[in-house]
User: Fold these one by one.
Assistant:
Number 1:
Amino acid sequence: MMLEVENLSVVFRDRRPPLTAVDGVSFQMGEGELLGLAGESGSGKSRTAHAILGLLPAAAEVSGGVRFQGRDLLTMSSVERRQVQGKDISIVFQEPMTSLNPTMRVGRQVEDALRVHTKMAAPERKTRALEAMELAGLPDPERVYRAWPHELSGGMRQRAMIASALVLRPRLLIADEPTTALDVTVQAKILDTLREINRKEGTAILLISHDLLVIRNLCTRVAVMKDGRIVESGPVDQVFQSPREDYTKLLIASRPTRKKLQGGGSHG
């Protein structure tokens, strides 16, 4: 298995009483797998992703095991962990406008990880950045490379963030609510982009979303979280057609009846 999360817990001891945000979560991902982590806001899904990546604040007490390609991320030194996080695991966050630095051109930001993790010369970095931007579905990458974040639409900013996450060709991409702030047409295009990245590069994707329809349109397996725990998991079609848990049934029932997200329209 590429990723093995075993009995992962996250407790915030600085709260009164202490808050258990993640409570004994376990799941596995194989190479190139598409797994959705579903649940409403506060269910613990984003905290789980942040624990995997070591992005939680110092007040968070993390226990359990997180093994990536056989190495436990939780017991690594901070230097080792940064290497793995930068090169082998990347994350795309929900809000690209706050994730992108408004004072830096987009291309320079896409290249950032190359400056930190490689010794590539500037021309090589630009070539790799343009390749990542093309893979992320950005039209006219040369123009976007020179653009400022405020000159891009919300969908294009999200694609720029995906390009930044892909530039080192990671084995695992964690997408944390990547379509939440986007309209349905742009959502569909972002999901198509992630599907194509998975197909072309073999990149495994952990998609975190409160929206089960989004997960159904991309993933092959889903794990449903409630109150910090996984309450149901299995193949996407099985969970949708025959959900066992009342909570899962409520999540499915709360979705619109659209069968599939529809593409089309202008570039997002």
Number 2:
Amino acid sequence: MNEPIKYTLYDITLYFLKLGTWGFGGPVALVGYMHRDLVEDKCWLTEEEYTEGLALAQLAPGPLAAQLGIYIGFVHFGLLGATLTGLAFIIPSFIMVVLLGMAYKIYSGLAYIQAIFYGVGASVIGIIMVSSYKLTIKSISKFELTAIKSKWMLWFLYLLSVIITVLTQREDVLLFIASGFLYMVIKAPPSWIKKYTTLPSIFVAGIGFWQYENKTLWDIAFFFTKAGAFVFGSGLAIVPFLHGGVVKEFGWLTENQFLDAVAVAMVTPGPVVITVGFIGYLVAGFPGACIAALAVFLPCYLFTVILAPSFKRIAKNTSIKAFVEGITASVIGALVGAVIVIGIRSIIDIPTALIAISSVLALIYIKKIQEPLIIAVAAVIGILLNFF
């Protein structure tokens, strides 16, 4: 194993600033870039340090890539390193989504913009379908009989979450927590539960840059803090939770606007979760964007810097692992359910169905193709269909 090469706080901060500016491909790609660059090429981290950071990012709630970046900053530079790398990683894409939000508010009523998002919305459905499949086989098991048998409880929680999400058309954090607790009790009950002979029951105006209401800002802060604190997995795992809040609970966005927000997250670099900045801007201008982004990323920052010093001990706790596995299965099930709900409303005709199917096939059969390229092609198709 290579010994890590000495580097400065400036070096690691500049690296994450560049990654946040040019790093396309979503959380899995971003995590891969970090390993390639920091472990293999630069040798700034050992394989063990990187692996520990990735494990912590998977065990704690919040966006995967951002958490790993914060942990990497923490490894050799402590709290200051975690803060600077986190900010450097997030700020470039935050600026981009705010600018896109400004443009969206000005031009969204124009025919050609509507035509662009006609194609983009259908393409996003296809992309999320593929991402849902990848998350399912990665976090639960492959679609093989022996694997399904061995992980039957996770599959049960997954399918239950799919069904409940489709029927209620909303996502509830209590369902996620109950799933995690139930799986922990069955799979690896902690010592304080083993002491009991019976188990407790489980129940299941313009650009609008500075237009906002104080109550709305408080609602944004509370809702997005919940999103950052209770949603486990990659960036797309937060989509169903956001959908349930911003579309169903508060009615801040329409179904089409929400799909556009997801599309914005996919065509900008950096963490996918930065779409909250776009959503926050549409709801309450620049203050809403800032509060939404801060509320989502602050919990994962706090989890990382608090847990990092004692993580080796925490990571070996089988009860905690089981709790996270149960929550993850339920969250991914909710993502699939949300895709079904949104897809029913967004795939409105044969062209949109063909665009969604083509996006799926492109991701499956064209190697190394990136989501922004697929979305760009879908936007062009939308314009062509609208005018010709």
Number 3:
Amino acid sequence: MKTRECAGYFSNIAQGAAALGVAARTKNPETKSNAIAGGISAIVAGITEPALFGVNLVYGKPMIAACIGGGIGGLISGIAGVKGYVLGSSPSIFSPITFIGGDSSASFGVMHGAIFGAIGGAVTIVVTFVLSYMMMKDMKDKDENSAKPAEGT
């Protein structure tokens, strides 16, 4: 039986969690709106571009948080031997169902991959969100100054 890597799953949900960490920290309504929309689309649908290009790369630190959180989730799944058995669509929070299968003699039977994939995903979300929130402690919104009208206009 062929298996596939599950790294995209952790990467996508980490991007979303990092954007949600920015949303929780910012006071700027436009940044908050963009971060919430990007975070939800990355976690639920696996569409990371709004979170990645609209928030995480703009501020930089959330991208670092996403790399760390996704790496920790991937480490947990790698140690547990999580494998994907079904080619799904874009990796999202629903991806652990693609990890069902394999050797029934594993610790949790055929659900082993799904259980540890979900655990790794939960750890990824929590670690990334907390790191992103903490790293943005001294956040100065990039659009904070642009929201004010320029002097003389």
Number 4:
Amino acid sequence: MDILEKVKAFLKRKDIVFSAKRYGIDALGAMAQGLFASLLVGTILSTIGQQTGLTVLDEIGTYAKSISGSAMAVAIGWALKCPPLVLFSLVAVGYSANALGGAGGPLSVLVIAIVAAELGKAVSKETKIDILVTPCVTILSGCGLSMLIAPAIGSAASSLGIIIRWATGQQPFWMGIVISVLVGIALTLPISSAAICMTLTLTGLAGGAAVAGCCAQMVGFAVMSWKENKVGGLVSQGLGTSMLQMGNILKNPRVWLPPIIASAITGPLATCVFHLEMNGPAISSGMGTCGLVGQIGVYTGWVADVASGAKAAITPFDWVGLILISFVLPAVLCWAMGKLFRKMGWIKDGDLKLD
């Protein structure tokens, strides 16, 4: 057996798979869950605590938010099927990558946790002192990489986010369409729109456009598929994820057109008419109506802006814009287009049925 074959056999035995699916879909998707279970839930609890005066909820939320880097790294390790010692060692790796990555913390965690996890898997159970070797390799490689490259990754991601936000401010109509459509598509694809928004720190008007795109997909599919899925589908898609429709989209791509068209309409309305801004956590920009995280994020941004003096007050127009962009317009537009597409024969009964 030559060296190449030996390497292939070793990688197979260690379940180390270099593929876009493993890293770009499995790991990224799991990272989003780690973000949700820490930063997002923490933000929700903190917001409830601050608005109701229940300081204990605010404190609990703060604890949850503080370990988001570790939660992301462990989630990535779980997706990569890491053995226990590697998985537990990723706690330190995630913390360091997120802390040193600044605004690009999630991207730093994604890249560095993948490298550390695979190196840890490679040495796992290969020595008689595995209890020392595996954690040391995982932590030294991960934290070392964090010190070397996390700040640069963070700066690059932050710069790209700044460019996108600047472009949105200069061209709110066209960028409103682009961001709304692309982030909405990302939300329905088996990748993480939340992680993308967090990585690029999509806030401000760009974040508002992202919220519009995500809501168009989630609420749009939920309403459009009412005939097939009734209340269960309305809740699972409208408050869960439109990703549930991916199988049906692959069978008949035309079912995706109404939500995409709706996002192209609501995006510029959000940026140009209602001036909807996401000044809460950037990750909320990519969540849409999932657990109402997108709407809570917009609200927390309003509260923060009022407290800082950047905004005089939360107005009725703000609430009307948020409700129309998040719920009413996606529902009406996708319902109408869904009816039209069914009459045209582009969507047939059962095409949107969830298993």
